[in-house]
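Q: How would the C-alpha cells look for this protein?
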Amino acid sequence: MAVPSPLILAVDCGSTNLKGALFDAALNRLAEAAVPVRYSRDQGPEVELPAEDLWHGFRQVAREACQTAGVAPGDITDVALDSQAQTFALVDAAGQPLTPFYSWLDRRADDATAALTARLGDAFHTHCSFAPPIPQLQLCKMRWLADHDPARVRQAAAMAMLPGFIAMRLGVPNTTDLNLAAMGGACSLARGTWWLEAIAAAGFALEQMPRLVDVGTAVHATAAPADAAFRTRLRVTFAGNDQTAGAFGNACERGGMVVTLGTALVVYRHTGRTPGPYHAGACWGPYPGGSFYELSTIDEGCQALDWARQQILPGEPPEAFDRAAQGVIDAARQDAAPLFWPQRLRGPAAWSGESTEAALRAYAVLEGIGFALRRLIEVTLQAGGQADEIAALGGGSRSAVWLGILADVLGTPLTQGRGDALLGAAAMATGARLGPPATARRTAFPPDPRRQATLDRRYRRWLEQA
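A: Here is the predicted structure in C-alpha cell form.
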C-alpha cells in the first residue's frame, strides 16, 4: 500500500491502558492498538508507575498499530499525545528518570496540601483548574518530594509530565501544554505561564519546569529518537487532557455538551473566550483555539453500574440488565422503582424503599446515575438547558436503553459521540476543525415528554434526599 503522508499516531496516555490509533490526513482511522498500564506501587495512598514501562508501552502501541496498517514506525510523521493529568516524574539532564511516575491517583501529600493551601490563599482557582488544593495535585506531590527527598529534587534537572517524557524519547525538548499544566497547580491560568510563587512554595525552581505551549501546539524533534525505528524530526502535538481531546473530537466548541459515561461520570462544556473560574465546584482551563472549557465530575459512574450489575444480576451480561430496565419502562412502572444514589455506593443507604425486584432495581440504577449527571449539569455547572444536544462517550454510551433514560432525565436529546480522545488529538495535529459528520447522522435519543414528567418528579425527590 502507499504510505499516507502525513501519517499520525495519536496516543491516549490513560490510567488503565495506553491506547493508540493511526490516522491519515483526512482523519481516517487506519489501525488501533492498546497495552495495559502497569503499576509498580498501588498500596494505600501511594500509586506509582515505572517510567521505562511507559516508554516501552508507547513503542509497543506504535509497533502493533503500524503492523495492522501495513506501515513501519519510521513512516509516522506526527505523534499526538493526550494524557491523564497530574502524573509526573523527575529526570536528570539526559532525560533519564530519577523517580517513578507519581500517578494522579496518589494521595500521599496530605501535609503538603495543607501547607500549600495556607500559603497560596483563596485565589488558587484563578490560577489552577482545580480548587482548593488536593493531595492528588501535581503541585502537592512536588512539595511532598521536596519535604521527603530534597536531595533528589536538587539532583533533578527537570520535572517531566507523562506526554513530555514520551516526547523527550522521540527527540523533542521537555514540553507540556497549558491545558495539562493548569490541572497540576504549578501553572497560572491568570498569567498564562508558570506560577512562580506556587513553584517556589513547592520547593522547585522555574528552571526545572518543562517548556510551556498552548494546547494543540506541534513541536519538532531536535534530537535523534531513543528508538531508531522512529524517524528524526518527528512532530509531536501536545493535545491536553483526555477529556479535552475527546470533546474536541466531538466538536464541543460548536455549542454542544459532552458527557463521559466511564468509571467516573464527567460533564464537559465549551465556555467561549471568557476565562474562568466559573463555578466553585468545577474545573476549568484552556481549550484548543484560544477559548476555554469547564467540567465537573463524580467518581461513581460506571463504577456504580458495574457494582450494581453484580449485586442485582450476578453473572449476567450487561444486555440482560438493560432488558430488565427496559421492561420497567415499557410497563410504565417507573414509580414502583426505588431511588438509587450512586454517591452512596456499597452502603445500605444507596437505595430507598424495600423493593428487591431485580428489574425495578436495574432501572433505578440507570435512572439514579442519570440523576447524578443532571445534578452535575444543573447544580454544579448551572448549565441546565444550555445544550441543544449532548454527546455521550465512554463504555456506558453503548447502551441504547441507558441513553434513552438519560434523555428523559435531562430533557435533552442524546447521541452516541462520533469521536474520541484519539480522533481529537489527531485533529489537533492536522489543524482540522471537526464539523457535523458527513456520513449518516448518529442515532439520536430524544426525550419522551410523558416519561420526562415522571422523572422530573422523581428527580426532585432524589435531590431532596441526596
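The CA atoms of residues 51 and 100 lie 6 Å apart.

Residues 358-380 form the longest helix (23 residues).

Upvote if useful.
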